[in-house]
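User:
I would dearly like some help making sense of a protein record. Take your time, and here it is.
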Amino acid sequence: MAWKEVTVRCLCAAWRPLWPECVLQRDFEGFEELEEEAVVHEIVSLSNSMGLEVDDDDVEKLVEEHSKELSTEELLEASQRRKRDTETEFNF
């Protein structure tokens, strides 16, 4: 049962130093990408391995929040905030 929790990314990271010729550096074009559900599961698995209490719903909510388009006003506010932060950081 524990092997089901091991992700492809984890296996590749473990084998790459031992046998780099057998581990793909990146996916080839035309090969099927991981389905969204598998990606969410991998993020949850990595988060849990770092001691974070994260579940699928948390990841999906985060992705949903960041996939919304910002209005022109929101973009201008973000730009002004970044400018203020930079000025504060460098004491302009």
